[in-house]
Amino acid sequence: MRLILRQFLDKAFTLAAAVSVLIIVGILLVVLVPMFQKGLSAVFFTETIEFRKLQKETHNRGNDEALQRRIEQTNAARKPIYDVLADFSLGINTESLVKEAKDIYQKYGEYLNYHNIPKDQYTEYRKQAKDIRDTMIAALESDNKDIVLANLDKVLAQEENPIYKDSPVQKLFILALQYQKTARTIDVAKRSEYLTNLQEVTTAIRQLFGPLPGEALPPLPMDQYGATRMDMAQKALHILLWDEAWVSDGDGKPLVKKNISRREQFAGTALEPLFDQVEKNIDVLLMPQFRCYWQYFIDDWVNSHYFGGVGPEILGTLMLTILAMVFAIPLGVISAAYLVEYAPDNHWIKLVRMCINTLAGVPSIVYGLFGLAFFVVTIHAIGKPCILAASLTLSILALPVIIRASEEAIRLVPQTYREASLALGAGKFRTLVNVVLPAAAPGILTGIILSLSRAAGETAPILFTGVVAMGPIPNFGSPSEWIRNPGSLFGGLLQPTRALSYGSYDIAVGDRISMLVPHQQFGMVMTLILLVLILNIAAIVIRSKMSKKLRGY
Amino acid sequence: MAENAAQTSVGQKKAAVGFSRSLLLTPSEDLVGFLSGHLGRAILFCITATSVAAVLLIFYFVIRESIPFFYTGTAASGIARVKEFFLDTGWYPSATVPRYGALALIVGSLYVTIGALVIAVPLGLLAGVYLSDIAPFSLRQICKPVIEILAAIPSVAYGFFAVMVLAPWLQTHLGFSTGTNAMNASLILAVMALPTIISVSEDAMSAIGREIREASYGLGATRAETMIKVVLPAAHSGILAAVLLGMMRAIGETMVVWMASGNASRIPSPWWDVSQSIRTMTATIAGDMGETPKNSEHYYALFTVGLTLLVFTFSLNLISEYLLSQIMRNKRGGK
Amino acid sequence: MKKILILAMFVVVAVGLMSVAGAAEEKKALQLDGSTTVGPVGDAFAEAFIKEKGCSITVKKTGSGDGVAALIDGRCDIAMSSRYLKPEEYKRAVDANVFPVAHVIAMDGVCVIVHPSNPVKELTGAQVADIYMGKIKNWKELGGSDMPIVAISRDTSSGTYEVFHEKVLKKQNMDAAVEYVNANPQAHARVKSTAGAIAYVGLGFLDSNVKALKIDGIMPTRQTIAQGAYLVSRPLFLFTNGYPKLGSLTHAFCIFYLTEEGQSIVEAKGFVSLTSY
Questions:
Q1: Would you give the DSSP letter of residue B279?
Q2: Which of B6, B330, C82, C129 would bridge with C35, disulfide CB 3.0–4.6 Å?
C-alpha cells in the first residue's frame, strides 16, 4: 500500500479511537444531565403560598405570623374571583334554582302558618306565591330568551308587593335578579354547554387555589391545597385559559387539536373578567418565591408521592446496604486474606476461585430467586420477606467484589513489608493483622465502597425478598429496650422496608398520581444516583491517595 | 538473657544470641500453638468456602425448584415439557390450558444482547485501544473515573432514563410506532456493557507487553497497523473474554429490559426489525414472580427460566475464565 | 487508636440509624398485599387510617395472585384483588384452613382508550376482540384513518388483563404482536404518545390526554359501570381470612369504604363507589 494511504489510515484510526472516547463521555453526560436537571427541580423550585400552607400544616415549619399575613393578603386578592365565579354559577345552574324555588315556596307556606294568617288570606297568598313560583320555573326551564326575560319581568314586578316583605319569597326575587343578569348576556339555549365549561373552569380554579370557600374539605391531601409549585400553577393556568377540542379534518383523517380561548367561550357573560383577573394578578394570588427544599431528603411522602420527600426510602436503602456490609465485609476480607496468604496451590483452591468468579457472574434476578427460595422459604426462622433476607441476599451479591478487590490490595502489598515483620519476630498471623491488612486497607476500602454502591443500586435481588412500596419505617425499638429484651432487635430486622431502588421503579410505573408529578419521579432517581456517585467519588479519591502512598509519588 | 542462654537445657539448639526459647518449637512443645495454627487455618478455609457454599446452594435451589416443572410423573411427559419449553414460542401461563413456551423469551434475550454487543464491542475496543496506547497519562487518569461512574450508575436509573427520555425521543425522531422496543433496550444494555469491555480489553492489551509493539514499529508499521494487525490478534483471548463478560452483563440485566423492551413475548419478524418489542427471560421472571402463587406450575416454570439463564451465564463464565487465564500466561511471559 | 475511633464511629452511626428508625412505641400493625389496581385505594385508605388512628400499615403491590397466596400463607391480613379467587386458589385456601371472605369496596371499569386524534368513537366487543387477536390490523378497517393499529395490553399476570381476557376476548389467546406493559400508567402513557395505539385501563386513568371508546354502544361512566351495563365492569375485592373480628383494625379497614370519607376517597381515586347507581 502506498505510504500516504497508510498514514491516512493511521490518522483515521487514531481519530476514530479518540471519537469513541468522546462518545462515551457524551453518553455519560446525556444520561446524567436530564436526570439531574429535572431531579433538582424537586429540591430547588419556585414555591407558592399553597406550599407554605402545606408545610405548616404537615410539618409545622414556617413563621406563623408572617404566613397568616400572607394568607390574608392572598385571600383578599382571591375574593373578587370567587365572587364572580359564585355569581355566575348561581345564575347558570337552573336545576338547582328550580329546586330552590320549590323549597322557597314550601318555606313560605310554613312562614304563613307561623304568623297565624287567617285561612282565606292564607289560601290567597299561597296561590299568589304559587303563581310566582310557576312563572319562575317556566323562566328557568325555557330555552327561549324572550320567554325567559318576559317571565322574569313578571316575577320581578311582584317584588314591590308589601306582603312579601321579610318573607322567604325575597330570596326568590334575588335569584330572579341574578338569573336575569345572566340570561341577558348568554345564549339561553346553550345553558348545558356553559355548565360543562363552567365545571372545567371551576376545576381549574380549584387546582390553582385549592377548595372554594364554603366547600367541604376533600378527603385526599392532594386536593386540599392548590398549586404548590409555580410550574404546576402554570399548567393549571393554561387549562383555565384555554380549552381544547378535537375537530374533524375530513373523512378518514385523524382529528386535529384546536385551542379555544375561554375568554371567547364566556364572551359577554359575567365570567369574562375572571380570566383577565387571574392571569394578570397571578403573582399576588399565589405569591411565588424561590425555595430550597432540602427537607426533601428527610420528609416522608404524602398522598402517594404527590407531596413530600424521600426520607424513609433513603433510610431503607442505607439500612439494607449497611446490614449487607456487616455480613459481607468479614467474610470477604478473611476469604481474601486466606486466599493470598495461606492457601496452597491445589485444586480445592482452584475450585474456590472458580466459585468466586461464578458468583460474580450470576444475574441479579437469579440472586433474587435464590434469596426467595432459600432465605424466605427454607429458613423458617425468617419465614417472610424482610430486611434480614434482603440484606443476606445483597451480601452474597457484594461478596465477590469485596474478595476480588481485597485480594488485589493484599497482593499489592510489597513483600518487603512482610519480610520485615517476620524478621522482627512476628508470626504469620500477626504479620497479616498488624502489617499487611493496614497496608492494604485503602484498596480494601475501595472494594467495600464499590460493593456498597452496587448493593445500594440493585433492585432485582430485593424485589421478592424484602422491599415494599409503602410501609412504616422499621421499628427497632429504643436502646433501652434492647438491653431488656435482646430479641426485639431481631424482631426489628424481620420487617420489610422501602428502598430507593425499588421506589424509583415503582414510581415510574406505578400510580397514576406519580405521572402528575414528574419532578418527584426524577427526584427519587436523582437521589439514588447522587448516593451512588458520592460513594464512588469517595472510592476514587481514596484510591488516588493510596496510589500516591504505595508508589511514593 | 545472655546468662540464661548459657544455661539452656539439653536438647535445645544453642543460638548465637541468647533467647529465652528456641525460635521454632516442635508440636510436642507447643501443642496449643500447633493446634490453634491448624485450627485457625481450617476455620479460615471454611470461611472462604462460604462462597463455594453460596454457589452450590444457588444451583441447588434453582434446580430443585425447576424439577417439578419437568418431572410431572412420567419421563415422556417430562420430555414433552422440555420440548415445549425450548421450541414453543407461546408463553401463556394463565390461559385455561397453560403453555410454557420459552423460545420467544430466549430469543428475546439473545436478540437484545447481540444488539448491545454490536454497538458496544467496536466502541469499547476503540476506546480500549485509545486508553491503552494513544492517550497520555493525564487523559487516562481522567477517563478511568468516567468509565467507573458509567459502571456505577444503578440499573434502575438506566431503566428510568430509557422509559422517560429515550423512548419518547425514539418515537418522535425516528418515527417508531413504539419507543419501548428492542432497539431501546439494546442501546441501554450497550452502555451498561461498555465499562466491562473497555477495562478488560485494556488490561489484555497492556498485558501484551512493549516488546511486540516495539518490534512492529521497528519494522515500519504505523500505529494503526500495529494495533490492528499485531496487538489485537495477540490479545485476542483477552478481548474475547471482554466480549463474553460484556455479554454476561447484558444478558443478566433485569430492570432495564423490564422497563424498556416492551415485554411482547414474540420473535421479531422480520428478524432485522429492531423497532419491535420483545421480552427477555429476566423480565419474565421479574414481572411474573409477583403474581404467581408459591409452588404452582407457573412458579416452577419461572425457576426453570432462571435455571436456563444461570446455565447460560455459567458457561459464558467458564469460557471467559479460560480465556483470561491465557492473558495471565501472557503476563508471566509465556506463549 | 484511629481504628478504635473509626469502629466507635460506625457503632454510633448504626445505633443512631436504628433509633431514628424506630423511636416509637409498639403500634397496631396491618399488612396488605395484592393488586396494583386496588393498590392506590389501599394506599389512600391506609394513609387516612394512619392519620386518624396512628397505627402502622404496610402495603405491598405485587399482584392479585400473590396477594391471595400471601393470605393463604398467613403473611398478610388483607389481600387486595381485582378479580375473584380462582377455583384452585379457593381450594388451596380451604385446604390450608383459610376461609376467604370477600369485601367489595368499589367497582372498576376497564375502559378501552385511544389517542384523542383518532376519529373512531365506538367499537363493538367483537371488534375489540378481533383487534387483539390480530384479525384487524389497520384503523381504516374500522372507519378511522390509514394507520396501523398498535395494540397494547397489560401483562398476563395482571388482574386487569384477566378480566379483559375473559369478558372481551372470551378466553382466546391474544396475537403475538400485542405489546405488553406492566401497569396502567404505562398503558396510558403509550396511548398518549402514540397516535395509532389502543389499550385498556381502569376508569381512573381517563383524562384529557386519551379518549375512551363506547363499547357496544355504552360509554364507561360511573352509572353504567355500577349497574354492570358496561361490558367490562368488575368489582374490586378485599379478602380476609374469615370475617374479621368486630372492632379489630382489620374490621375497621374493611368497612372503611362504607363511610363518607371512604366513599369520597374511592371516587377521588377514579373508581366507582358501589352506591353510584
A1: -
A2: C82
* CA–CA–CA angle B240, B246, B252 (5° rounding): 135
CB B227 within 8 A of CB B126: no
d(CA A311, CA A299): 5
Lowest mean pLDDT, pick from B61-70, B132-141, C50-59? C50-59
**Residues A326, B276: contact at Cβ < 8 Å?**
no
d(CA C114, CA C200): 9
* Contact status, residue A94 vs residue A141, Cβ threshold 8 Å: yes
Window 216-275 of A: residues touching C by CB (8 A cutoff) are 218-221, 223, 244, 246, 248, 252-257
Other C-beta atoms closer than 10 Å to the C-beta of A203 total 13
Q: What is the pLDDT of residue B334?
A: 47
Nearest residue of A to residue C37 by CA position?
A511
Q: Cα angle at C30 between C26 and C34, to 5 degrees?
A: 150
Number of H helices, E strands in chain B: 15, 2
Residues of B in contact with C69 (CB under 8 A): 292-294
Cell 325555557, residue located: A142
Copy the grid coordinates of residue A331: 467474610
Strands A301-302 and A242-247: unpaired
Residue B116's Cβ-side half-sphere holds a number of Cα atoms within 13 Å equal to: 36
Q: What residue has cell string 371488534?
A: C127
Tens of pLDDT along C49-81? Answer: 887 887 878 887 777 777 888 888 887 889 998
Residues 361-420 of A with CB under 8 A from B: 361-370, 372-374, 377-378, 396, 399-400, 403
Torsion angle defined by CA atoms of residues A469, A471, A474 and A478, in that order, rounded to the nearest 10 degrees: 160
How far is Cα B245 from Cα A309, in angstroms, rounded to an integer?
38
> Which of A25-34, A84-93, A209-218, B91-100 has the highest mean predicted lDDT (pLDDT)?
A25-34
Q: Which of A161-175, A341-355, B259-273, C142-156 has the lowest mean pLDDT?
A: A161-175
Angle at B236 between CA B235 and CA B242, to 5 degrees: 95
Closest CA–CA distance from residue B152 to any residue of chain A (Å): 7
Q: Which residues pair with A261 in a beta bridge?
A: A242
Residue B335: pLDDT band with limits 50, 70, 90: very low
- Whole-number Å distance between alpha carbons of A59 and B218: 74
Q: pLDDT tens digit string along B5-30?
A: 444 444 555 556 777 777 677 777 77
Specify the pTM. Answer: 0.84
When scoring B100, B291, B298 by the number of chain C Cβ atoms within 10 A, the one with the most, hence best to mutate, is B291
d(CA A437, CA A424): 17
DSSP H or E stretch at residue A316: helix A311-337
Note whether C156 contacts B92, CB cutoff 8 Å. yes
Does the beta-carbon distance from A468 to C58 stay under 8 Å? yes
The pLDDT tens digits for A295-353 are 888 888 877 778 888 888 898 898 899 899 999 999 999 899 888 888 888 888 888 88
Cβ neighbours of A33 (radius 10 Å): 11
Closest CA–CA distance from residue C86 to any residue of chain A (Å): 23
Q: Which residues contact A514 (CB under 8 A, 6 or more apart)?
A: A304, A305, A507, A508, A520, A521, C185
Q: How far is CA B278 from CA A157, B110, C155, C176, in A?
A: 76, 11, 13, 10
DSSP codes, A388-431: HHHHHHHHHHHHHHHHHHHHHHHHHS-HHHHHHHHHTT--HHHH
At A39, give phi and psi (nearest 5°): -70, -35
Cβ(C67)–Cβ(C87) under 8 Å?
A: no
Q: Do C193 and B168 touch (CB under 8 A)?
A: yes
